[in-house]
Amino acid sequence: MNYSNIFDNEGISYAEYRELVNKLLQEGKTTGVDHSEAMLHYTKMNVQRMNRVDKTVTLNSELLKATQDLKNQYRFLVISEGWCGDAAQIVPVFNKISLVNPEHISLKFVLRDKNLPLIDAHLTNGGRAIPVLLILDEAGHVICQWGPRPKVLQSLLLQWKKESTDMMLIAEQLHGWYAKDKTQSTQEELCKIIQELQ
Hints:
There is one protein chain. By secondary structure, this protein is α+β, with helices and mostly antiparallel strands. The chain contains 9 helices and 4 strands, in the order ααααβαβαββααα. It has helices at 3-9, 14-26, 37-56, 61-68, 85-100, 116-120, 151-163, 167-181, 184-196, and strands at residues 74-80, 105-111, 132-136, 142-146. β3 and β4 form a beta hairpin. α2 (14-26) packs antiparallel against α3, α3 (37-56) runs parallel beside α5 and α4 (61-68) runs parallel beside α9 (184-196). It starts with a helix and ends with a helix. The model has no long low-confidence stretch (mean pLDDT 96).
């Protein structure tokens, strides 16, 4: 798979990604193929979540330093969708990281459902879970993959799914966890990855 080609020719900036999600909502659509009321509802909620994370979250000092210390060029390729609740809580953090050191980090987004061979090469427990962050080196090789959510939440989610089949309840628990965590677990895991890039 030619990751550089996907990054350069399919990837869109964070601003373009946010704009696309908003534009589709105005047309009564979301990203992907399912434009049902439920998906539109999730997408509207996610726009509010992204707005909140954009406004309220600051990177912790350790992550800030690791990002500022990067010496080489990296491309952050994010597989996402506007209707995805985890993505809404996490992608603004990727954007904040890229803004700290734009000389060394380029950030682009691609939509999962338009890039099935890409997501199928990066499944989580056999599923097309998103968001997925792929970090590419200058040669365009994937040197690291992260996602679709912090490990502690991944474990909790598996537990919740054993206890209930009610997806609305599970979504409520998930977003409740994100609200309490305030991106700290996401930042800690990304910090370790970025430190290892040195």
